[in-house]
């Protein structure tokens, strides 16, 4: 189960803080994983989760944590999406070895539907790449994000769990992803 996925993702005995974080994220999903075995659709009695991986400080491992948790949960059969919300230095797709065709601004502008903006990544993970240095995203607000279709409610219709890999700091664009 989750212990095996954690072992595979972190390669050994992770620090207690990592185990606490993984337990907080995965404990509510254990029933979903059990129900998924032999069931080909989402059990609608289980509430999907949207979780922001965030910090005011850069270089603390937000992207690494997002990628590893996403892959570990996807390996367990959950439908997992990740969105790179670092609008200054988007790099989640690079870490995952991807060359995305679509990025977040394509979805926000309506050029690409939300579901199609998420591209296949490792182990069944679905990735919506961010855009580096995008003026359009620098001042992103919740209202603008929702009008573009990237709302929590829309994400919950597609995925069991979504991770938001936020940028560091307290700029409006970074904070808008936390609402």
Protein model, in words:
- By secondary structure, this protein is α/β, with parallel strands linked by helices.
- 42% of the residues lie in helices and 12% in strands.
- The protein has a five-stranded mixed beta sheet.
- Helix 1 (2-10) packs across helix 4.
- Residues 37-45 have low confidence and may be disordered.
Would you spell out the secondary-structure blueprint of this structure?
Blueprint: H1 2-10, H2 16-26, H3 30-36, E1 49-53, H4 62-75, E2 80-85, H5 92-95, H6 104-108, H7 114-117, E3 119-120, E4 126-128, H8 135-138, H9 142-147, H10 152-158, E5 161-166, H11 172-176
Parallel strand pairs: 1-5, 2-4, 2-5
Antiparallel strand pairs: 3-4
Helix pairs in contact: 1-4
Briefly say what this structure is.
This protein has 179 residues and is an alpha/beta fold. It has helices spanning 2-10, 16-26, 30-36, 62-75, 92-95, 104-108, 114-117, 135-138, 142-147, 152-158, 172-176, and strands at 49-53, 80-85, 119-120, 126-128, 161-166.
